[in-house]
Specification:
7 helices, two-stranded antiparallel sheet, single chain, 232 residues, alpha+beta, globular, disordered N terminus
Length: 232
């Protein structure tokens, strides 16, 4: 057996493993995008670099049907089904970040302590059999500022800000379409670099969000990105 053959066999076996850089993942390496896995890891590390105590939250975002768009978009916008979905996630993140900053200013005016918080994120666009895309998102916050989603209807809660940000990105009210924002079961994860269980916390989070790196259900070549994440 030649050296090249041995290397090929090793590579095949490696791609069948259920781990990446020593961390467990969902599925095998060959069923996931290595680039996406690497970017997910990098985003976690970027958050920890600024916020050693990080709160990560998983959210699923969906698009309304045409009947809802009819009520919130102009006739010219309705003509194109892709009205402005290219920048949809950009608008969502910008809106959410603006809401966090506005809350910080408000707390300072009221004499309350407002710990700094940079919103970081990673998202993937997917589609199964529906004509509508949906987005799997993980958001990262300073745990000393946010440590739970809170009540959806509670003004100023993290959940309400996320819902309002998605509403803003879509350009219509989600009052009667709350199902478009879903907080999955066990959606919150705490990371504390000084905790003795930090390695397990890190591993659990990465395993959960590694699902976002799967190749299946991604639709490339449509002129729109399938993945996005914080770069700093």
């Amino acid at each position: 057996m030649t050296g090249d053959t041995c290397e090929q066999i090793t590579l095949v076996l490696l791609m069948k493993e259920n781990s990446y850089q020593g961390l467990p993942i969902q599925g095998t390496l060959d069923s996931n995008s290595l680039l996406y896995l690497d970017k997910l890891l990098n985003t976690i590390n970027l958050s920890l670099l600024e916020h050693p105590r990080t709160y990560a939250i998983r959210v699923d975002l969906r698009l309304p049907g045409f009947d809802v768009y009819d009520d919130c978009l102009s006739r010219d916008e309705i003509i194109s089904y892709n009205w402005d979905r290219i920048n949809l996630m950009k608008r969502f993140i910008e809106s959410l970040s603006a809401k966090v900053k506005a809350q910080t200013r408000r707390m300072c005016r009221e004499g309350k302590r407002a710990r700094p918080c940079t919103v970081r994120y990673a998202w993937v666009r997917e589609r199964y059999t529906s004509r509508n895309d949906h987005y799997h998102v993980v958001l990262f916050f300073n745990k000393d500022r946010y440590y739970k989603a809170g009540q959806y209807s509670s003004d100023g809660s993290l959940a309400s800000m996320i819902i309002d940000a998605w509403s803003s990105a879509l350009g219509c009210s989600l009052a009667s379409n709350s199902r478009l924002v879903e907080f999955p079961k066990d959606h919150g994860y705490f990371l504390n670099e000084n905790d003795r269980n930090f390695s397990q916390q890190y591993s659990d989070l990465f395993h959960r969000i590694s699902y976002m790196a799967k190749k299946r259900t991604k639709h490339y070549g449509e002129g729109r990105r399938c993945f996005g994440c914080s770069s700093r």
